[in-house]
Design goal:
Helices cover about 5% and strands about 60% of the residues. The protein is mostly beta strands and about 675 residues long. It has one domain: Maltoporin, Chain A (Beta Barrel), CATH 2.40.170.20. It has a 22-stranded antiparallel barrel. A five-stranded mixed β-sheet has the order 1-7-8-5-6. A hairpin with a 2-residue loop joins β19 (about 380-400) and β20. The longest helix is centred in the N-terminal third of the chain and has 7 residues, at about 30-35. The radius of gyration is 25 Å and the shape is globular. It is found in: Cell outer membrane. GO terms for molecular function: siderophore uptake transmembrane transporter activity; signaling receptor activity.
């Protein structure tokens, strides 16, 4: 299936997509298998309204409705997502997850501080009551090979103890010269029925990601004479000593009890520990158009980073009667604290300003010698972010066709730290965020809705003086229509939205990067974003599945000028599969397209100021085919970027660009038992 029956990411109430008064999407396990989406980044890139920006080999950022996504959840537990440091949030292997839920717009009721962009909720796989297993093997372009194992079932004769174990191993080169990747995830979970009404869950997952000779940053846009560069897609200036090692560990436990009066309580504790080790070279400058000379190290650093997070959530859900009608409610409290420390050790030649130029990095035998490193910490960032909150929400059945959802969240938020020798402190107490939504069933299978919530988002970004920007505040409005068709097999929706914000952050495009390579920003008031989204997902017939979504929006400042022009404001995503009839029923064919509108920025070049750099609109077409040898054994082949389209995943940051992947192919053999 390409849709799901219910989700709770938006409100904490277990509602269908039609009952939720916001734009929601789900990426199911089946679609991840059909499209060969094996990590979170590739999966999210195929969800309506979300744009993925890849800055280099390992750093990604996600945006929705023109704003960055700052929260990635796992089973509803949020992790603040700082894109300056890749702690593996976007590299997680999708073999661990049953589905990915997305709520677009403001989601402060359940998540707390955040932008009115979207939240991404990764739903882990759970143990099954019957024994089942799955093994897979895959090979693909750039010497890619992969194996995976998924085992699930009862651990005792009564079936009151159930477990699941998942692991995979993947190794591949890249389309970029010399770059190599390796990752292996592990996941284990046990469910124990302490009584008929009490469930104890204990689990943990771990993933190791290793990149060798990966780029840190992109290729320069300008030659020294002001003309535009046009490097081949495989070009890299990563030296042979560059690497990145990311270790992600998460441990969780929950206790859930079902009371006799149709109420339930669930307590969840989660501990996350992520580490980051890197040696990187970031290049800057304008190369000579004749010999490609003229690039120098902008930074060469050894990075030792860590992030630890502890979360606790207690939730009470149930039904109650009022005025002869049944209503639903959810109450909760949660606490979250994240400690982080990122230590940078510079190359000695950077401190002495004696580093040599890169030379012509296009040459096949190019390398840059590894420098001597400072033995003491040169600079870095450390501190913590702490949040305490309580929330309440109710779904009121006003009359048979009308449902009202009311809720609110009271949050206290604090951060303390030092960010590259600048204090980074902020504290906000008793910040209340209201939430309201009204759903009217105009027919048994069609509803119209409206929703409203406020925005409170403390900023982690700084201006060119290193000062922390003020929190973003504002309002989020949404109107829409949702429906179901084909005997509940297809969901469809249309949403209109408007977002109003003050203290909205804008990229300071021409300011130099900070010591860690991150950008600086400034704040503006009176920002307004208006747009619409359309989505259809599900099973049109027994043999035909489809997912399609289109998003269009325009964000403007108080003078009506477009903001965030580097983010695409038109996105179309389509994927469909069809199982052939009759004697060919073992064969499934499919394909899709991801299209985005044009983007542009004004950058200061080496010769002229305010040069317009632009990426035209483009489409990437993908195909798939699957042959089902037996009910248990199948072979799936995915051909990505069918027409070998050249495009950029990032164009403009640091006056550089980064290419998207060329045409590639992968074959996956899957056996279920």
């Amino acid at each position: 299936m390409y849709n799901t029956s219910s989700m709770s990411t938006a409100t904490g109430l277990n509602l269908s997509a039609r009952e939720t008064p916001q734009s929601v999407s789900v990426l199911t396990k089946q679609r991840m298998l059909d499209q060969d989406l094996k990590n979170v980044t590739s999966a999210v890139d195929n969800i309506t309204g979300i744009s993925v920006r890849q800055s280099d080999s390992d750093r990604f950022s996600f945006t929705s409705r023109g704003m960055r996504i700052k929260n990635i959840l796992r089973d509803g537990v949020a992790t603040y997502y700082d894109t300056r440091f890749n702690y593996g949030d976007n590299l997680l292997d999708t073999i661990l997850f049953d589905r990915i839920e997305v709520v677009r717009g403001a989601a402060g009721l359940m998540v707390g501080p955040g932008q009115p962009s979207a939240v991404i909720n990764l739903i882990r796989k759970r143990p099954t009551r019957d024994f089942r297993g799955e093994v897979m093997m895959a090979v693909g372009s750039w010497d890619k090979w992969r194996t995976g194992l998924d085992l699930s079932g009862p651990l005792n004769a009564a079936g009151t103890v159930r477990g699941r174990f998942i692991t995979a191993y993947q190794r591949n080169n890249a389309f970029i010269d010399r770059e190599q990747h390796e990752r292996y995830p592990f996941y284990g979970i046990v469910e124990i029925d302490l009584t008929a009404n009490t469930l104890l869950t204990i689990g943990a997952d771990y993933q190791f990601n290793h990149t060798r000779q990966g780029m840190f940053g992109g290729l320069p846009i300008f030659f020294s004479d002001g003309s535009k560069t046009d490097y081949k897609r495989h070009t890299s200036y990563a030296p042979d000593w560059a690497f990145s090692k990311v270790r992600s560990f998460s441990m969780f436990t929950s206790l859930q009890h079902q009371f006799a009066n149709n109420w339930s309580m669930k307590g969840t504790f989660t501990y996350d520990n992520n580490t980051l080790d890197q040696k990187v070279l970031w290049a800057t400058g304008y190369p000579n158009p004749n010999n490609n000379q003229g690039m120098y190290p902008g930074s060469m650093t050894l990075i030792d980073g860590s992030r630890r997070q502890t979360s606790f959530d207690l939730q009470l859900n149930g039904d109650y009667g009022l005025f002869s009608r049944t209503h639903h409610a959810s109450f909760g409290i949660n606490y979250q604290k994240q400690h982080f420390q990122n230590d940078y050790y510079s190359a000695l030649c950077m401190l002495k300003k004696t580093c040599k130029s890169l030379g012509d990095f296009r040459q096949s035998n190019w390398n840059y010698p590894q420098p001597s490193w400072s033995k003491s910490r040169t600079y870095g960032s450390k501190g913590y972010i702490e949040q305490t909150a309580g929330y309440a929400v109710t779904q009121l059945s006003l009359m048979d066709p009308v449902t009202l959802i009311l809720g609110g969240r009271l949050t206290s938020w604090k951060t303390r730290g030092d960010d590259f020798n600048q204090p980074k402190n902020g504290s906000y107490s008793d910040q209340f965020v209201p939430y309201g939504g009204l759903i009217y069933d105009i027919a048994p299978d069609i509803s119209i809705y409206g929703s409203y919530t406020q925005i409170f988002d403390p900023e982690s970004r700084v201006d060119r003086n290193g000062q922390l920007l003020k929190p973003v505040s504002g309002e989020n409005f949404e109107l829409g229509i949702k429906g179901i068709a084909m005997d509940n097999s297809v969901d469809y929706s249309l949403a209109l939205f408007e977002i109003r914000q003050n203290n909205f952050t804008q990229l300071d495009s021409n300011a130099p990067p900070r010591p860690d390579g991150s950008r600086v920003y400034y704040a503006i008031d009176g920002v307004k974003t208006r747009g619409f989204e359309v989505e259809v997902s599900g099973q049109l017939t027994d043999d035909w599945k489809i997912y399609a979504g289109y998003t269009q929006f325009r964000g403007t400042d108080r003078d009506g000028k477009r903001i965030n022009r580097e983010i695409p404001n038109r996105l179309f995503k389509l994927f469909t599969t069809y199982t052939l009839p009759g004697a060919m029923s073992n064969l499934t064919i499919g394909g899709g397209v991801n299209w985005q509108g044009s983007t542009w920025q004004l950058l200061d070049g080496p010769v002229k100021k305010q040069v317009k750099v632009e990426q035209a609109s483009f489409a990437v077409v993908n195909l798939m085919g699957r042959y089902q040898f037996t009910p248990a054994l199948s072979l799936t082949v995915n051909l990505n970027n069918l027409f070998d389209k050249t495009y950029y995943t990032q164009f403009g940051d640091y006056k550089q660009y980064y290419y998207g992947a060329p045409r590639n192919i992968e074959a996956t053999l899957n056996y279920q038992f």
